[in-house]
Amino acid sequence: RPPHRVQERLFVYGRARRPCLRCGTPIRLADQDDRPTYWCPGCQSGPTP
């Protein structure tokens, strides 16, 4: 595999409220145990409490 920069591999991290690169749905952000959790509600289920 050719080397990739970290930013090129991150589809949701650090992209809260921006469109998902895969489906266009806005990325969600939640705090989970004092850590940020990013996810796309169109592609993934959200974090569980």
Task: Describe what this molecule looks like in 3D.
- The protein is mainly β and 49 residues long.
- The chain has a domain at 6-39.
- Helices cover 8% and strands 20% of the residues.
- It has 1 helix and 2 strands.
- Strands 1-2 form a two-stranded antiparallel ribbon.
- A hairpin with a 2-residue loop joins β1 and β2 (35-39).
- The longest helix is centred in the first third of the chain and has 4 residues, at 6-9.
- The protein starts with 5 loop residues before the first helix and ends in a 10-residue tail after the last strand.
Task: Supply the key terms.
1 helix, 49 residues, globular, two-stranded antiparallel ribbon, mainly beta
Terminus-to-terminus distance: 37 Å
Stretches where pLDDT falls below 50 for ≥5 residues? none
H-E string: HEE
**Widest sheet: strand order?**
1-2
How much helical structure, as a percent, in the residues? under 10%
Sheet bearing the most strands, described? 2 strands, antiparallel
The outline comes out as globular
Work out the helix count: 1
* Rg from alpha-carbon coordinates: 12 Å
What's the assembly state of these chains? Answer: single chain
Chain-averaged pLDDT:
82
Give the helix/strand class: mainly beta
β content, as a range?
Answer: 15-25%
Give the number of DSSP strands: 2
Report a brief summary of the structure:
The chain has 49 residues and is mainly β. The chain has one helix and two strands.
Detail the topology: elements first, then pairings.
Elements: H1 6-9, E1 28-32, E2 35-39
Antiparallel strand pairs: 1-2
